[in-house]
Amino acid sequence: xxxxxxxxxxxxxxxxxxxxxxxxxxxxxxxxxxxxxxxxxxxxxxxxxxxxxxxxxxxxxxxxxxxxxxxxxxxxxxxxxxxxxxxxxxxxxxxxxxxxxxxxxxxxxxxxxxxxxxxxxxxxxxxxxxxxxxxxxxxxxxxxxxxxxxxxxxxxxxxxxx
Length: 162
Description:
The chain is an all-alpha fold. The chain has helices at residues 8-21, 26-41, 45-58, 63-76, 79-92, 97-116, 125-137, 141-154.
């Protein structure tokens, strides 16, 4: 009721009480998903991701955990990670039009980003690496290498991934 009324603080409080009864049960997985939805509405993304992850652990074949995680990642601008989670959700429920729509939206955003990106425009190692990964996934290896090279150039000397 609190969630429907958009009283997300109260919703989180009651979902937390329900989770506390048996936090590792399969039934709790649904409650973690609902609490994640409340956290998303409150823009508390790290909490939403944490609850989505627990939902996925407790109910690995249920779409809601992957969907909530994907929505959170999309809201945060992590469109590549959102694509991964929407794709995982779709494997469990291929006819779900909400998931199909979200997946299509993030794929369009990824394509738009990639079409506009050049290695020289990247200002952080992480961004260049992520775009390189996207091109690699598409099989565009030469472009991926260009972005990876840029990522290396931008990485600080102390970066352990360098």
